């Protein structure tokens, strides 16, 4: 059974909007990072990760966890 926006309470609407904002922010961060990161610092093809990022919350989280290789900053910690 699908519900219409008008069927939701004010609190439920706020949750939906907040979740949408978080999802959009995660995806924007991931796509920006992917675009700026050199291909040799990405695990696998960039085009595949770009598509994976589009998958709800799971895509950007998966990219953060498994898609990125650490960047070498040239500094070492003591």
TrEMBL record:
Q: Which UniProt keywords apply?
A: Cell membrane, Membrane, Transmembrane, Transmembrane helix
Q: Which Pfam families match?
A: PLDc_N (PF13396)
Q: What is its main location?
A: membrane
Segments passing through the bilayer: 46-63
Indicate how the chain sits in the lipid bilayer: Multi-pass membrane protein
The subcellular location is: Cell membrane
- According to the entry, every stretch annotated as the Cardiolipin synthase N-terminal domain falls at 25-68
Q: What is this protein called?
A: PLD nuclease N-terminal domain-containing protein
Q: Which organism is it from?
A: Actinokineospora soli
């Amino acid at each position: 059974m699908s519900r219409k926006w008008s069927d939701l309470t004010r609190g439920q609407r706020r949750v939906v909007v907040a979740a949408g904002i978080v999802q959009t922010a995660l995806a924007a961060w991931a796509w920006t990072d992917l675009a700026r990161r050199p291909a040799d610092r990405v695990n696998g093809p960039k085009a595949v990760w770009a598509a994976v990022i589009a998958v709800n919350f799971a895509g950007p989280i998966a990219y953060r966890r498994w898609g990125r290789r650490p960047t070498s900053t040239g500094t070492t910690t003591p």
